[in-house]
Write a structure and sequence with these properties.
Radius of gyration: 25 Å
Oligomer: single chain
Number of domains: 4
CATH class of the largest domain: Mainly Beta
Helix content: under 10%
CATH topology of the largest domain: Neuraminidase
Length: about 625
């Protein structure tokens, strides 16, 4: 029935089924799904092309795709021009490190000490053309600014090229051909975003382009001849999708290279500068595409290069090899029956979504318990690209509908009357938005400078509780605030030193009198669950945990009667502790990647996210551009 009514949607669903099977290692089922796309949906040209790419992947003569390494944080990494080394962010300390891709040997180029000693970190490294230096961004936690630094690849003291309190965020893109300048993307404290050249010698800056505050240039790239810069930017303020542009290296002219309703991003140049390879979700999966370029302008239409899943190109080496990353996260929404008294499971957990599987999270019950809203991270949105779809499911009929909101949705809360959702947005005008559940119309409720994670509503809908991080000069703090929706008055309930603590997950008690939150202590690597009166006052500690459980608690929840607080340990076990204090109790529910539990008003049903947070894989593909790159 679905195939007759919506052939494009059905074809995409069948293709995504194959992708999911492939990621689970079930290759025969994956191949069967791809063949079904070819036989059942022959009229859907783009999906058929993707399925054919999957079925023939690796079978072409000479084409080689190899997995080189896997670890959690490879998104901000770079391969040396000769393909021998990878520069990357070392999650164990935050240092800049390099890995020999042949031998597997690793060493650090910086030495900041442990996380307990310093919260500084490195990211977005770039090798010089001769491979002798690495430029990178360095987050200075104490001053809350980003430096541009350069370190010798062979070892030595890093050199600060630029240090400015006006820079809120910085990414290093490329070295100029003569090695004298560095191409960077900058987010300023004033709210503007810039593409600029910075002298590697004295730090002087030449701004090439300034973008509006809501628009940031993503994944810039410099053409091999140094004449042009590619970058991706938002199509418009309320859309998370990107288009790709080519900017002259002197800022004199600009051309739209890829303009399409889908999300197109991460452009990289082939070694001969005649093509740009980019990631696109136009056929439902974040796959690799290419487009021919001449004199900074498009030459023909984009062509599918290699089907996903979730591919992000890092760049080419001199011999025409393309290095890219693949994300292997799988996340799903579940519901289960739970006895509110004993805490024992009554019905086994069952997957809630039926249409798009493997990329769903953050379920929240409506106040009447009749609807469940959750986020569906389609088209690569789980990894920062594409629109995150809000789905509302009727728990009575099982019917699901998608909200037409085009915001970069991150977290949800129901308005108590069920008319709308309070949505956290990270990119387009950071803040909290009210999204109408019938029309999808979005209106900003609280504008903020910083990303606002995980807000909470009072039961009457008149007050919002949220976390706010502020930073100005040497004074930084994280605040728990209340916001009166009618009067628009704010009140600071709690303030902690940003350099020592962070706050997470405010949760209001069922009677509306207390607010629960998690507080992490950076240097001592300690966590606490605390409770305090909503009108303010001294918090009391409900539970403590040490370094071994630093990442173990993910969004606590109150029981419906307020007698217990539920929390997660070890990222897979559900526990509860009496809200007045007492001995914690381990419950029956255990799931890999368990997070964001939410109870319906009766307290007898729990919804939660769970899944596999896999490593990011580094891959190399060779001999796949017969008419481009080094082979042309």
């Amino acid at each position: 029935m679905l195939a007759r009514r919506e052939p494009a949607l059905a074809a995409r669903a069948k293709y995504q089924q194959g992708v999911l099977y492939e990621r689970l290692g079930r290759q025969p089922e994956a191949q069967q799904a791809y063949r079904a796309v070819l036989t059942q949906f022959a009229s859907q040209a783009e999906i058929v092309a993707l399925a054919k790419s999957k079925l023939t992947a690796g079978s072409s003569a000479g084409v080689v795709a190899r997995k080189l390494w896997a670890q959690p944080s490879l998104q901000f990494s770079a391969v040396s021009p000769d393909g021998r080394f990878l520069a990357f962010y070392d999650g164990e300390t935050g240092d800049l490190a390099v890995r020999d891709l042949a031998s597997g040997e690793q060493r650090r180029l910086t030495n900041k000490g442990s996380w307990k000693e310093s919260g500084d970190l490195a990211h977005s490294p770039v090798f010089s053309a001769d491979g002798r230096q690495v430029a990178y961004a360095w987050f200075n936690q104490k001053e809350y600014v980003y430096d541009l630094r350069v370190v010798p690849f062979g070892g030595g003291q890093p050199r600060v090229v630029i240090h400015s309190p006006e820079i809120d965020y910085l990414e290093v893109v490329a070295w100029s051909r003569d090695g004298k300048n560095l191409l960077v993307a900058i987010q300023g404290r004033s709210g503007s975003n810039q593409i600029a050249w910075i002298s590697a010698g004295d730090g002087t800056m030449q701004v090439l382009k300034t973008l509006s505050g809501w628009n940031y240039p993503f994944k810039l790239g410099l053409s091999p001849d140094g004449r042009f810069i590619t970058y991706a930017s938002r199509q418009k303020e309320d859309a998370p999708q990107n288009d790709i542009f080519v900017l002259a290296a002197d800022g004199s002219r600009e051309t739209a290279l890829v303009h399409h309703p889908s999300d197109d991003s991460s452009p990289v140049w082939t070694p001969d500068g005649k093509d740009v390879v980019f990631a696109s979700n136009r056929t439902g999966s974040r796959s690799l595409w290419r487009i021919a370029v001449a004199d900074g302008r498009p030459r023909g239409a984009p062509q599918i290069l290699r089907a996903g899943p979730q591919m992000n190109p890092l760049g080419f080496t001199r011999d025409g090899s393309l290095y890219y990353t693949v994300n292997n996260n799988l996340m799903e929404v579940y519901s289960a029956g739970l006895d509110p008294v004993s805490g024992k499971l009554v019905t086994a957990p069952a997957v809630v979504p039926e249409r798009f599987v493997g990329q769903n999270s953050f379920p929240v019950w409506s106040a009447d318990g009749q609807q469940l809203a959750y986020l569906s991270h389609r088209d690569g949105a789980f990894y920062g690209a594409g629109a995150t779809t809000i789905v509302i499911r009727s728990m009575k009929t099982g019917e699901e509908r998608d909200l037409p909101s085009r915001l970069d949705n991150r977290q949800l809360r129901w308005f108590p009357d069920g008319s709308a959702l309070l949505v956290t947005v990270a990119r387009q005008g950071k803040g909290l938005f009210r999204v109408d559940v019938k029309t999808g119309e979005a209106k900003m409720v609280i504008p903020t400078v910083d990303y606002v994670p995980d807000p909470e509503f009072s039961r009457d809908g008149k007050t919002i509780y949220y976390l706010h991080g502020i930073g100005d000069g040497g004074s930084k703090s994280v605040e728990l605030r209340s916001f009166d929706v009618e009067s628009r008055q704010e009140k600071v309930l709690l303030q902690v030193d940003w350099e020592r603590y962070t706050l997470r997950h405010p949760r209001l008690s069922p009677d509306g009198r207390q607010v629960l939150f998690q507080m992490d202590e950076w240097k001592e690597r300690r966590q606490e669950l605390r409770v305090m009166p909503v009108e303010g006052g001294q918090p009391r500690t409900l539970l403590k945990a040490g370094d071994s459980e630093l990442h173990g608690w993910t969004a606590p929840a109150w029981s419906a009667d307020g007698k217990y607080v539920f929390y997660i340990r070890g990222r897979h076990e559900l526990w509860r502790v009496p809200s007045q204090g007492g001995e914690p109790q381990k419950l029956d529910l255990a799931f890999m990647g368990l997070s964001f539990p939410d109870f319906d008003p009766s307290g007898s049903r729990i919804a939660f996210s769970a899944g596999h947070h896999g490593n990011v894989e580094l891959w190399v593909m060779q001999n796949f551009l017969p008419d481009s790159g080094a082979a042309r």
